[in-house]
Amino acid sequence: MKILAIESSCDETSAAIVEDGRRTLSCKILSQIDIHKRFGGVVPEIASRAHIEAVVSLTEGALADAEMTLPEVDAIAVTYSPGLVGALLVGVNFAKSLAYATHKPLIAVNHIRGHVAANYLAHPELKPPFLALVISGGHTSLMKVNSFTDYETVGITRDDAAGEAFDKVARVMGIGYPGGAEMDALANIGNSKAIAFPRAIVKDAPYDFSYSGLKTAVVNYLHNAEQKGEEICREDVAASFSAAVCDTVQNRLSHAIDDFKMPAVVLAGGVSANSHIRKCVEELCKSKGVSLYMPPLSLCGDNAAMIASQAYYEAKAENFANITLNAVPVNNKFVK
Length: 336
Known about the structure:
Elements: E1 2-7, E2 12-19, E3 23-31, H1 33-36, H2 44-65, E4 75-81, H3 85-102, E5 106-110, H4 111-122, E6 130-135, E7 140-147, E8 150-156, H5 162-172, H6 180-188, H7 212-227, H8 234-260, E9 264-268, H9 275-288, E10 291-293, H10 304-316
Parallel strand pairs: 1-4, 4-5, 6-9, 9-10
Antiparallel strand pairs: 1-2, 2-3, 6-7, 7-8
Helix pairs in contact: 2-3, 4-10, 5-7, 6-8, 8-9
């Protein structure tokens, strides 16, 4: 089954064709980083307009790279939730129109499930059940994946997501948007024990995350130093902040591994590209004796190939959408 998928949940427009959920035939991605960099973050209205301008040509490019025509596609898939509502609507309406005009089945895919499915493209042997930890700019969630379409969320972020905290701290430090990659590089040469930043624990919720307090502590540290005229070591700040994030990730994931006895852990999402998070999760899984699957860096960010991969399993479960499909910007449980 060859599925054409559209992804437009935030600031990347993407179109891809994937065969049987595992083989990528083509994947076109257009990033908007240069557009939003001057604003220090994603501007939703600008993002939506950029998606409108790009989606048709990217779809044509995906078809050309796969050496296919639209009639040869078996189904149309699209990210419908979660994300920026205007950005999602561009992809949803385009995919609905395409499916309607070509009489192809329409498949609605949850963006979080898509991130998990990126690992199906990289690891052909991977199949549920497993624990999935998804860490991105807008989401930090821990899920039991019982089957390809049966997701049970056991932990979520109560406030800021890890990626959001990275970007906000980077901005205060004077690092341009997006700040994740440079924060990672700075942390590699800093002292992770130089500054004692807090590690938040959510009472009676051992699998939930909270990064708002950590973000505020780092911002206050930087502002206090500025007001006192003290020079800061950006490398030490980045390293100490990264260590605090990694400690909380290890703590929550450790509890889940012990309690749910899943045979494997899957790491996914944009922030799964962070070298320190990859290392700390790898060390934990090795100590617990469970298998770990991580996507290559090229599949960590938003892309339509991961959406097409998950769409294949939604189709096998006969989870098809219709012309009434709408964008759902917020989905805290990430299981629909």
